[in-house]
Amino acid sequence: MLRYIDNRILYCFVAIFVVPICLLVNPSRGITYRYFRQRHKYGRLKAAWNTYLNHCLFGQVVIDKFAMYAGKKFEIEIEGYEYFLKLANKKEGFIQLSSHVGNYEIAGYTLKAKKKGFYALVFFGEKASVMQNRMKLFADTNIHMIAIRPDMGHLFEIEEALVNGETVSMPADRIFGSQKKITSPFLGASADFPYGPFSVATMHELDVITVHVLKESWNKYKIIVTPLAYDKTSSRKEQILELKTAYVNELERIVKHYPTQWYNYFEFWQ
Fold first, then answer.
1. Among residues 69, 94, 115, which one ends one of the domains?
2. Do 63 and 93 fall within a single domain?
3. What would the DSSP string read from start to end of the chain?
């Protein structure tokens, strides 16, 4: 269907028939409402309206993802592309930190490094059809997927990729696999972030960027690439704290600018 029809038809269907049901039966309604009320300090009516918009936009992102599988193209604007290219042309590998903002998967089809393999961590429990379509799209690229597994076997794949000078993309705003965490102020309250991404980067003294892909209109996305600086000469503990702070500050900046495009449906704050 997505090969032949306008995405906006399905956007309307989702907004009218799917999202209201989700809001009635899913705990994400309360989580998102409190996010707007407590973190962004919105009034009750504005928080409720933005909760609805957030779910509608998430539905659009899912539709867009399958539209890409069907061969649809989107207009892409890239901010900070020079940072990505600089690291992509170096011999050493680097870490690309992501978050559950916008439609990050588009970055995989847009930011391509000819000289490096790109290894992206993905959730082990994704549907087989999604994984198969990803593999089909990535067949002619240098992109590979590392599934986050309960036995922590993905850590060996990450290590091998980095030793070989490849790029590893890791989500850093949700705790997967290992429950080791690091706490940080975020939008005015303490929140837990995964320890692993910051530990891996500093262990190898790697350069780090963060990438966010925001939906600007029905057919346009904006990719924002930001380098994350930390002092590689300081102690390992200080490096981890500096890198974590740089990541959280950038995530907070993005979320404040695009509050309805952070798709976190878990109790994030302590």
1. 69
2. no
3. -TTTS-HHHHHHHIIIIIHHHHHHH-THHHHHHHIIIIIS---HHHHHHHHHHHHHHHHHHHHHHHHHHTT---EEEEESHHHHHHHHTSSS-EEEEE-SBB-THHHHHHS--SSS-EEEEEETTS-HHHHHHHHHHTTTSSEEEEEE-TT-THHHHHHHHHHTT-EEEEE-SS--SS--EEEEEETTEEEEEESHHHHHHHHTT-EEEEEEEEEEETTEEEEEEEEE---TTS-HHHHHHHHHHHHHHHHHHHHHHSGGGB---S--B-
Same domain, 184 and 210: yes
Look at residues 245, 227, 120 and name the one whose alpha carbon lies nearest to residue 182: 245
Domain boundary pick from 34, 69, 104: 69
Domains identified in the chain, total number: 2
- Tokens found for residue 240: 């981890």
Distance between CA atoms of 128 and 146, rounded to whole angstroms? 14
Under 8 Å CB-to-CB from 111, ≥6 apart: which residues? 78, 81, 84, 211, 223, 225
122 pLDDT band (50/70/90 cuts)? Answer: confident
| pLDDT tens column, 191-229 | 999 999 999 999 989 999 999 999 999 999 999 999 999
In a domain, 2, yes or no: no
Sign of CA dihedral 256, 262, 265, 266: negative
Which residues span the domain enclosing 187? 75-261
Shared domain for 128 and 12, answered yes or no, is: no
